[in-house]
């Protein structure tokens, strides 16, 4: 049985299941979900807790199996936590988890904690057994587009809110820009607002003076911002990656890979192939599929060729070469490539018509 995180409280209010599996790479959300389950378990009389962390291929699974079958001397019910940080229990662990699921008891609440699972792991026999025998909760990262609403919801929990209208949206966007990619720090910044200001309405000036820039950026999210045409956000992310010490070679590789995929899709469309087939042949999946589906019709072959050629020039620059028409600094060159790409995708229809597009 699968639950969304926002369904967990209502589910627990109706009674506990013997097994819960929490999986995802967002530490704050995982911590909160597990704390909520533990609290409900304690209220139901599960007062003793045993924790097993699976580390390495030689982990002794017999201890886990035994713990679930032993009756405590000091409590009628217990919580057994099984943590698999790698998300790979191995052959022995896979078999042990499947056996474990066959002998669940109402006197033992089992909480399994896993990282984000890939397609193969989510289709494995051991995860299928966990999902079928209990409740699984997938914790996805909060995307930038959903972050203002998430922040507003968190503020409401502490009886605070932003002002109505555009100023309030500006305040939420300000916070989102400074906490993007770092949800645990975002939580701490919002708690700071609760300590600094009373319940009620928050003005932009109050938030601006209190919230630190704790954003953490991901090179792949930078590619999404570029394909989405978000210039200010892309440049901010580029500055953030530089400040965090990210290698310009990796940043360039991500941008260039997206441009090559975009050119393949554009070429397939020009050859008369439908968009779904073009995306499939170009091996474009997930979030990038939606973004490239939007971007591909905006540019034609000769403009795509210029962008890919610019990416090739930038490749040499980030590796220490020089070009007379480009900045010598690798990050300045990356910034130029980002701006060129977004400008090409945002070219007005009138401009494309004037250029024979």
List the defining traits of the structure above.
357 residues, alpha/beta, Rossmann fold, Helicase, Ruva Protein, domain 3, Zinc Finger, Delta Prime, domain 3, 3 domains, six-stranded parallel β-sheet, globular, disordered C terminus
Can you tell me about this structure?
- The chain has helices spanning 8-13, 27-43, 62-69, 90-102, 119-122, 125-133, 147-157, 165-179, 183-196, 204-210, 219-227, 231-243, 248-270, 275-281, 286-295, 301-318, 330-345, 349-354; strands at residues 2-3, 19-23, 46-53, 77-83, 108-114, 135-138, 160-162, 200-202.
- It folds into three domains: 2-138, P-loop containing nucleotide triphosphate hydrolases (Rossmann fold, 3-Layer(aba) Sandwich); 144-210, Helicase, Ruva Protein, domain 3 (Orthogonal Bundle), CATH 1.10.8.60; 219-354, Zinc Finger, Delta Prime, domain 3 (Up-down Bundle).
- The strands form two sheets. A six-stranded parallel sheet has the order 1-6-2-5-4-3, with helices on both faces. Strands 7-8 form a two-stranded parallel ribbon.
- 58% of the residues lie in helices and 11% in strands.
- The chain has 18 helices and eight strands.
Task: Write the topology of this structure.
Blueprint lengths: L1 E2 L4 H6 L5 E5 L3 H17 L2 E8 L8 H8 L7 E7 L6 H13 L5 E7 L4 H4 L2 H9 L1 E4 L8 H11 L2 E3 L2 H15 L3 H14 L3 E3 L1 H7 L8 H9 L3 H13 L4 H23 L4 H7 L4 H10 L5 H18 L11 H16 L3 H6 L3
Parallel strand pairs: 1-6, 2-5, 2-6, 3-4, 4-5, 7-8
Helix pairs in contact: 4-6, 7-8, 8-9, 11-12, 11-13, 12-17, 13-14, 13-15, 13-16, 13-17, 16-17
């Amino acid at each position: 049985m699968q639950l969304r995180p926002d369904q967990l409280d209502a589910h627990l209010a109706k009674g506990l299941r013997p097994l819960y599996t929490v999986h995802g790479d967002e530490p704050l959300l995982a911590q909160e979900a597990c704390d909520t389950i533990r609290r409900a378990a304690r209220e139901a009389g599960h007062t003793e807790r045993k924790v097993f962390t699976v580390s390495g291929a030689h982990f002794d699974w017999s201890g886990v199996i035994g713990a679930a079958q032993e009756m405590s001397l000091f409590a009628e019910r217990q919580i057994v936590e099984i943590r698999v940080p790698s998300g790979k229990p191995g052959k022995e662990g896979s078999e042990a988890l499947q056996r474990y699921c066959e002998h669940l008891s109402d006197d033992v609440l089992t909480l399994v904690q896993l990282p984000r699972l890939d397609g193969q792991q989510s289709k494995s026999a051991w995860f299928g057994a966990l999902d079928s025998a209990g409740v699984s909760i997938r914790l996805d990262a909060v995307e930038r587009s959903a972050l203002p609403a998430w922040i507003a919801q968190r503020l409401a929990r502490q009886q605070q809110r932003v002002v109505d209208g555009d100023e309030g949206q500006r305040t939420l966007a300000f916070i989102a820009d400074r906490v993007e990619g770092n949800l645990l720090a975002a939580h701490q910044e919002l708690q700071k607002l609760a300590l600094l200001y009373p319940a009620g309405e928050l003005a932009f000036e109050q938030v601006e003076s209190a919230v630190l820039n704790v954003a953490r950026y991901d090179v792949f999210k930078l590619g999404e911002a570029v394909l989405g045409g978000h210039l200010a956000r892309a440049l901010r992310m580029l500055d953030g990656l530089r400040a965090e010490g990210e290698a310009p070679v990796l940043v360039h590789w991500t941008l260039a890979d997206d441009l090559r995929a975009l050119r393949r899709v554009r070429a397939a469309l020009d050859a008369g192939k439908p968009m779904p087939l073009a995306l499939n042949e170009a091996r474009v999946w997930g979030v990038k599929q939606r973004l490239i589906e939007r971007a591909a019709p905006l540019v034609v072959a000769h403009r795509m060729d210029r962008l890919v050629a610019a990416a090739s020039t930038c490749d040499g620059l980030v590796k220490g070469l020089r070009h007379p028409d480009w900045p010598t600094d690798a990050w300045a060159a990356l910034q130029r490539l980002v701006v060129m790409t977004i400008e090409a995708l945002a070219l007005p229809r009138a401009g494309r018509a004037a250029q024979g597009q």
